[in-house]
Amino acid sequence: MQTTERATGSAFSIGFVNSYGQIGGALGPQIFRSQYAPHYTVSFAVAMALVGCAIAMNLTTWYVTRRTEKETRVLKLARVKASRRGEAVLEDVDIHTDRGLVSKVAGEV
Fold it and tell me: Can you tell me whether residue 109 is helix, strand or coil?
């Protein structure tokens, strides 16, 4: 939700996140049918497969966004340090060079 802009983007993000909670209610009756009773072996296997897929997708998402998260943390620290000196960071910080911050910091605010 942090990357969305304006009211429409935020509303869509909130609705999308809230829809996650409805997935169990929609899939549960389809997976745990009475024909599998009393042991529900098939249902348990399907549920565990879905949990495994969710873990795999979570790890994939983390891997894809790891660089952006690192850059965000570096930028936040640079802004805090610049603020203490009475300066402001006007652009993104280049984390691949030692002098990236020096060239992108404005003077007195």
Answer: coil
As a whole number of angstroms, the distance between CA 28 and CA 45 comes to 13
Tell me the C-alpha distance between 20 and 64, whole Å: 21
Dihedral sign computed on CA atoms, order 30, 31, 32, 36: positive
Dihedrals phi, psi of 3, to nearest 5 degrees: -90, -5
Mean pLDDT, 10 residues at a time, the chain of 109 residues: 64 82 85 89 92 94 88 85 84 55 47
Contact 86, 105 (CB under 8 A): no
Domain residue extents for the chain: 1-30, 32-106
Using the 8-state DSSP alphabet, how is residue 39 labeled? T
The pTM assigned to this predicted structure is: 0.52
Which H helix or E strand runs over 58?
helix 41-84
Other CB atoms within 10 A of residue 79 CB: 15
| Cα of 40 vs its chain's centroid, Å | 34
